[in-house]
Design brief:
Length: about 210
């Protein structure tokens, strides 16, 4: 099946789950806010590029890096817990972890330019931080595709999962839209199914 045919079929499968009514209005508001933030950030970046000095003596340098490493440690621990327990939140943890690793690599390399520690920072970024971030992004992508494929398959639909950037968003819809598509989650130990009641005379005969 071609990519365009697979995507077309996905649009048909998810037609009932697309935004409508209030959900569509909320999406427009979010898009407007994002566009406004992009414009503001572009202007602010230009201002910083013109006004910031090339060198600056920072205050509380230790607190900045220790705080960042604590956040990175928390993301690693949360990712390990989610992977150990096999929870869907692992996807979010992997994305957060990849983002922090990329930021760590960027600031390590850029802030150590023209310093004795530049080579070590560059080596750690290339050999450790960037590969780990790539693995986290690949893992999150794979889990997303597996989850989407399992949900639609449970709904009785068979289709090859297209690239994530071509899959429409699930959104507010009728309650029955996903009721039969999501697996039933048990809370606590599973209960044994009891058979039909045994007549009293059968118990006496046994």
């Amino acid at each position: 099946m071609t990519g365009s045919g697979s995507c077309t079929r996905w649009w048909r499968l998810t037609a009932s789950a697309r935004p409508a009514g209030r959900s569509a209005r909320r999406r427009r508001i979010v898009l407007i806010v994002i566009i406004a933030c992009c414009i503001a950030l572009a202007v602010w970046t230009g201002i910083l590029a013109v006004t910031l000095p090339g060198y600056y003596r920072s205050g509380d340098w230790r607190g900045a890096w220790v705080g960042f490493d604590v956040a990175l440690l928390a993301a690693l621990a949360a990712t390990g817990w989610a992977a150990w327990r096999g929870r869907q939140v692992l996807i979010i943890c992997l994305i957060v972890l990849a983002s922090l690793l990329l930021c760590d690599a960027w600031f390590d390399v850029v802030l150590d330019l023209r310093t004795p520690g530049f080579q070590f920072s560059l080596l750690s970024a290339v050999a450790v931080e960037l590969p780990l971030a790539g693995l986290a992004i690949a893992g999150a992508r794979r889990l997303l595709r597996l989850t989407i494929g399992m949900v639609t398959e449970r709904g009785g639909q068979q289709a090859r999962v297209p690239p994530l950037w071509r899959i429409p968003l699930f959104s507010d819809g009728p309650a029955d839209t996903f009721r039969d598509m999501l697996p039933q989650i048990r809370f606590g130990p599973p209960q044994q199914e009891s058979g039909p009641p045994v007549p009293e005379h059968a118990e006496r005969d046994s």
